[in-house]
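User: Can you write out an input/output pair for a complex, sequences first and structure second?

Assistant: Here is one pair. Inputs:
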Amino acid sequence: MVCPGEKIYDCKRQLLAIQDTLDILGGKWKVTILGCLAMGEKRFMDLQRELAGIGPKMLSRELHELEVNSLIQKNEEGKYMMTEYSASLKPVIEVLAAWGAQHRVKVMSMQ
Amino acid sequence: MVCPGEKIYDCKRQLLAIQDTLDILGGKWKVTILGCLAMGEKRFMDLQRELAGIGPKMLSRELHELEVNSLIQKNEEGKYMMTEYSASLKPVIEVLAAWGAQHRVKVMSMQ
C-alpha cells in the first residue's frame, strides 16, 4: 500500500476496500464458520456443537452476516453451505493464512 | 480453504493463522494508520489529527500493537514509521483491497 504519489482519493478508496474485507471476515467466528462449512454443509445445531463457546444468538448473527454477503446460503433441507461466490475468497484466505503462519514463526523467533 | 481430505489438524492450524492475521490488522483503525504511515513518517499528534475520531488512548493502543508486531517503529525524532518487515504485508493488503473492491461492486449490483 505505497500511497505516496497516488492521489489521496485512490488511497482512501483502497483503505475502504481493505476495511470492507476485514469487516466481512473479521471478528472471532466468521473464518472458523467458513472453515467448518468448507468441510461440508451443516445444520445450525451442528455448527453450534463444532464451534465450542459460541452462543446461539452470536451464531445466528454471524451466519446472517455471511449470508447477506453471499458467502453462505441455506439449502432446502435447512443446512448451511458455502456459495459459489465464496470461492472468490480463496486467494484472500490463502494469503491471510500464509502471512499469519510466517508471522507466528517471526514472533516466536523474537522471544 | 478446501478442508475435506486435509487432516483436521492442518485445517485448525490454517484457521489459526488466518485469525492471527485478521486480529493483527483488524479493528477500525489499524489499516488506516498503516495507510497514513505508508505516506511517510508521522508524529503522534499528526496521526491523531489525520485520523478523525480517534482518541489518544485508542491511538496509543493501536500504535503499541502495531509496534509489538514489528509493523511500525519509532525513530530517534519520535516519529512513527513503517518497518522493513511491514513490506511483507503488501500481498495481503493488495488481495484485501482487490476482494473488497469487487465485493462492493457485487453488493451494489444486488440492490
